[in-house]
Design brief:
The protein has 503 residues and is α+β, with helices and mostly antiparallel strands. It contains twelve helices and 26 strands. The protein has a nine-stranded antiparallel β-sheet, with no helix packed on it. The termini are far apart.
Length: 503
Amino acid sequence: MARTEECILYRNFDNGEVLDIMTSLMNSYEAGEEGFENRKEEFFHIAGSLVEMAGMYGFSGNLWHTYLTQLLVNHENAFSTASEIRGAVEGSINHLALHDFGIFKELYDFDLAVFDSAFGTDCADFLCNYVNTGCNSKVYNQRICDRICDMSKTLAEASTVEEFMADMVQFYKDFGVGKLGLNKAFRIEHGKDGKPVIAPITRIAHVNLDDLVGYEVNGCFFGATIGRSGNRIAQSRFTLDGKEIVLTPNEGANNLHSGPDGFEKKMWTASEISEDKNAVTFSRISPDGENGFPGEFNVSVTYEMTEENELRIVYGGVCDQTTIANMTNHSYFNLAGEGSGSAMDQYLTIHAEQYTPVGEGSIPLGENAAVEGTPMDFRKAHKIGDEIEADFEQLRITGGYDHNYVTDGYNKASIREIAEAWSEKTGIQMNVLTDCPCVQFYAANFVDQEHGKNGHVYNKREAFCLETQVEPNAVNVENFHSPILEAGERYYSETIYRFSVKK
């Protein structure tokens, strides 16, 4: 039986009419109510309302599930708002939330096909497999719309109420709750009464990197400062000083680039270094427990444009507890110029005899391997695209190059050249120098319709990244370079991108 009247936290929904009518129909059907077949008009009313909702919100798939998900992700209550701030919470409120989610799971599990049998219709079939017109949402930006549709599938697949609740908590933590939480950009509009109202900007796809919000919504870390820890940490956990540290996951069970809402989404304090340097320093305090990382980390990043046509990046900081420090920069490069298309015809050299093979989830297998005799060999310059589609397991796992290279000549605190790239079209050459032991070479395998500057839209393999670092998941692998920063120890790392024209 549908028991929505028994909900404690999740009640009094906006747009709750459909829920009320649908649950009434469910209860009548399961009770074998006499004359139930005469309620066909009510079912048609619900079907029409769900289709109207799909048009308004841009939903596809199972419209009953997306409707329920829409209610849950927008309902601001003591549990949802606490989860938005802290993730999983403690206390009696968990029991109340679990009770309500049990009721909602029953709604997700109900098979609407019984109504088609009872009423002699095929409405349930198209409601559960709805294909939208392709029109944009009038309420949400496309990212939020997609997240709600994906979440509806996740909740429908939950095998237990506990799993259902954990999925909801993670959604609140990652994306927020309600209009102000879910949306990233707003404008002031005048309501029907002439009073100002805050309205979300739904055409967020047209916001580019010339706007602050463009960086907020970008999903590929364009130009990002990554911290505290670049790349992946397996299962979002590690042991430090005998204590298990649990991080916030954001790529399945793993932690990628330090988790959701990382350094790249934070506001930093900017200051000029000096009048004689073309440089700026950004600083912030990463609080103890941010995305699970221990200690208060007072961190800075300095960007300097030198007279030698270099972009010099210097990371620094100190933490009051032993923590992880493995910062990097996630800039994408195309030496043929912005918006010029594929970067696969550009030449790349990586000074590395070894790379780090990965398994499921792009987590390293724990040992480095020789590049010799494999498509991973960039010791001599060749085009990035020459072997990217080779029948090689490591390339199949990652959809192309997305691997750590253990670069030659590493000596702690010593700067040396680790890579070189060149475009035959423009003659522009980029040399990469660093004091880091490794570099992640990523060929933009999963970039899809990402908006950059000046109206350019970027897709798969139209750029590449060279992210200096220690090995991914190094904190969990003894024979990898250590990313551990002791309490009170000064963190320092430097990377240089040097540009010239090769004639």
